[in-house]
Write the structure tokens for this entry.
Amino acid sequence: MIDYIPIGLQMLAAAALAAGLMGLSTLLGRPARSRTDLSPYECGVDPFEPAGKRYTVRFYMVAMLFILFDIEAAFLYPWATVFRDLGLPGFLEMAVFIGVLLIGFVYCWRRGALDWD
Amino acid sequence: MSASAVIFYVLASIAVLSAAMVIWSRYPVHSALYLVTTFLSVAGIYVLFEAEFVAAVQVLVYAGGIMVLFLFVILLVNLKDTLGPRVRLHATFSSLIGTAVVGLILYVYSQGRVPGSPGAAPMLREGGNLQAIGTSLYREYLLPFEIASVLLLVAMIGTIILARQKT
Amino acid sequence: MDPVLERVIVEAAVKIALVFFVVLTTVAYMTWVERRVSAWIQDRRGPNRVGPFGLLQPLADGIKFLFKEEITPPHVYRPVYLLAPILILVPALLTISVVPFGPALRLFGRDVPLRVADVDNGVLIILAFASMGVYGIALAGWSSNNKYSLMGGLRSSAQLISYELAMGLAIVGILMSAGSLRLSDVVARQAEHGWNVLWQLPGFVVFLTAAFAETNRLPFDLPEAETELVAGYHTEYSGMRFSMFYMAEYANMVTASCLAATLYLGGYHVPGLQRLGLPQNAAAIVQLLAFGIKVAFFLFVYVWVRWTIPRFRYDQLMNLGWKVLLPVALVHIVWVAFIVLMGWA
């Protein structure tokens, strides 16, 4: 646990630095004066459509697939560190695991879930 | 009180407070951010109990993966009316279930049947936390590990089918 | 307080202060290097008025940012809008905490290792902190209530998580050969058996590509594509808040370069240094400098690539991440497994 104390300290230091920068510029910066500064920036044209419209479902799909592969990667890390001890049986175990996921990956690919056009 | 106890109580109170705020705050974005805070402080508690690998995976998968998906949904769908009558009904039911689960946990705790205590942690440290997990996962618990891949596969196919239904 | 704990805290505080100083100075001077090298590549002069060779330019920029008009547009969602720059800068400054800059230095009669923290989950800690970077970007884009910002934030988040995957899988090869997630073990292993880049070239290429994408640099800077998204998720930010996004981007570049050097180029290892028989501190400083040179090389590559490869389209970017890098990373794992099983590594 004691190894992690420096990381905790760095976390506090980074947060303090970021908050300090925010505070400093609020103190020193000039307040905004004109009204055009305050409208949403759209290259000088008046905004013609609110920002919150609907977006493509692909973003959700990417996030979902990311989670699944992220979990796969989380299984790979402890496996990789003991790989030398596990040897060939260890390799085959992981091959089965990844193999099952690859079926899903190929399915996603074939169904066009990875296409952006 | 020892230093680690102080850290534990600080982290635990942050975790519980932000968990409460997940429910209390009116805006979905705030709820999501409070939930991330809860995950992070729980990760801190894992580190305190020498379960560093679990802590890292907690951040990587829960805070860095699952919550990102939540956030995507919240940011893109622009949820406005959060407190409709249906939601109230849901709230009643979920608070009943929640109370039941808390009661169950307290009951198990009072019976002194809590599996694994902080005292067990140093055992994991010998030869490295991660190596211990690796050996036991890929030697003793091989079958559950392989079954996990099937679960992931089901989730993957489910995603595609749900997303493709409407187009 | 416990004297051991007290020593750990004091030592860590000093190191953190030093690391922040070095990282923030590097960040400031990277902006200068970037502009000078860009100018050199394009046969221009670049900033050369403030101080000799324009060397004081970063200082002038910093002061200017502090006194700039601080605009908080009325249409933004204030609490999240003000939180986002902090959420983006903090993870960017954290990842470097587990990077070993050099071996131990002999100071005040004991060995002081040249790193903030040496933990057995080093690589995982890096990935965990890196995965936190998405929040700042996604929330900045959303809270700005500007469609360019939202689009930029979305694109960027999807890009970050996609390439995080490729990066995480590329690193698995390193762990298989080192048998540990501790970064000093990774360096020690390379010192004994040769640098990883020599036999893990596919992993190295995947890692470097993903590192470019993770830092939103050209050719992966779509979230900021000036011509279509007018700077993307930080369109509505100004003054110091705006510059915090830039600080985070450059700090991420520094960290990514440190990681590339540590994981693939032997970290602070200098071949043949042992034969010279230098005293401990001299050897440590030579190795620290060697590490600095390796990092500087990767930072230069960042600028170099910027003016060499044009920006991708978004579909090309996602295809590269999911259909090229991910499969290559998986095949790479099989390749490393083969080498390790044959006992060649």
Summary: Helices of chain A lie at 5-28, 58-81, 83-110.
